[in-house]
Amino acid sequence: MTSNADEGAFWAGPAGAKWIEFEAEQDHFLSEVAHAVVGMAGLRAGERALDVGCGTGAVSLLAAKDVGPTGHVLATDIAAPFVDRVAERAQALPQVGVQLGDAQTVDWPETPFDVALSRFGVMFFSDPVAAFTNIAKALRPGGRMAFAAWGRTEDNPYWAEPRRIIEEMIGPQNRAAPNAPGPMGLADAVWAQDQMTQAGLKDVAVDTREIPLLHEGGAMGAADLSLRIGPAVRPLREIDATPEQVAAYKAQTAQAFQSYETGGQARIPATVHLFSARV
Ligand SMILES: C[S@@+](CC[C@H](N)C(=O)[O-])C[C@H]1O[C@@H](n2cnc3c(N)ncnc32)[C@H](O)[C@@H]1O
Predict the structure, then answer these.
(1) In this structure, which residue's CA is closest to atom 4 in ligand 1?
(2) Burial of 1 (0-12, 13-18, 19+ CB in 10 A)
(3) Three-state DSSP class for residue 131
(4) Cβ of 128 less than 6 Å from ligand 1
(5) How far is the CA of 78 from the centre of ligand 1 (A)?
(6) pLDDT reported for residue 173
(7) How far apart are CA 206 and CA 25, in angstroms?
(8) How far is the CA of 259 from the centre of ligand 1 (A)?
(9) Strands (E), the chain
(10) Are 97 and 75 in contact (CB under 8 A)?
(11) What pLDDT tens digit does each residue of the chain (279 aa) get?
């Protein structure tokens, strides 16, 4: 069994703390993706769902509404601060439980589940086949999966524009190897589906959609968010960016996002793969 311990350490550190600190803003930003993945999961009242890589629990909370008080949602994540946060947010929802664990290796006790779902929690596996096999083990025969993952950087302005601007400012950056664990780890949908098939899943399919990312602070709000969570965090930290560089980055990124702003709201089109499969 391969563990994903490096990811656990990463998310339990400052990166995860930012997700918790800016939870409301990030939840709104990614809300349309949450609705898309929960919609694809097609949860019914009384069903049992497993939210893999639950983060602060936006998808778990939505799924909890669909399964209702007779159903169950287990929110599971490799980083303890996240499962603690979901437990706090779901205090009034007895149908939500939490469990700490690495999806590649954990033994979820309350099996079987009808559905496993995730928004952006399944691209970080060092061994995707091991993870999908382990998730499949937790589902009943015929159980289904619905996972959202980012498409290619080039097709996602929220990722491509920061990269372009940072590279113009400080030169070429190391780029992740194709299919390496990370935000774009399942961006190659053909490869990703092959990993799922190798895990023994059936009816593996992808529905690639354009889904808007929403920011009520407009282009500047989205540029600011990209500094705290996501695209610009790692490169600017690696070069120990000066306040002037950060300010220049923010101004240029806001300008790049300007065409997506209407009436003060930014709607940045994102290319998202919605993967589905059955056990
Ligand atoms: C980009 S965040 C998404 C969080 C949440 N699903 C959301 O959409 O708000 C990725 C999440 O995957 C979790 N994760 C990464 N590798 C994991 C693994 N091997 N097992 C379980 N969770 C993992 C991280 O701790 C983090 O919470």
Answers:
(1) 55
(2) exposed
(3) helix
(4) no
(5) 7
(6) 82
(7) 28
(8) 31
(9) 48-52, 72-77, 96-100, 113-119, 139-150, 202-215, 261-262, 265-278
(10) yes
(11) 567 778 788 888 888 899 999 999 999 999 999 999 999 999 999 999 999 999 999 999 999 999 999 999 999 999 999 999 999 999 999 999 999 999 999 999 878 999 999 999 999 999 999 999 999 999 999 999 999 999 999 999 999 999 999 999 888 888 889 999 999 999 999 999 999 999 999 999 999 999 999 999 999 999 999 999 988 988 888 888 999 999 999 999 999 999 999 999 999 999 999 999 999
- Cβ neighbours for 175, distance < 8 A, ≥ 6 positions apart: none
Q: Distance of alpha carbon 183 from its chain centroid, rounded?
A: 8
Residues with Cβ within 8 Å of 33's Cβ and at least 6 positions away in sequence, in order, are: 119, 120, 148, 211, 213, 270, 272
One-letter identity of residue 239: I
- CATH number belonging to domain 5-152+177-216+269-278: 3.40.50.150
Q: Is 120 in the pocket of ligand 1 (CB under 6 A)?
A: yes
pTM above 0.90, yes or no: yes
The full set of domain ranges for the chain reads: 5-152+177-216+269-278
Burial 120-135 (b: 16+ CB within 10 A, else e): bbbbbbbbbbbbbbbb
Contacts of 103 (CB under 8 A, 6+ apart): 4, 52, 53, 76, 78, 121, 122, 125, 131, 134, 135
- Is the Cα torsion angle 208, 213, 219, 223 positive or negative in sign? negative
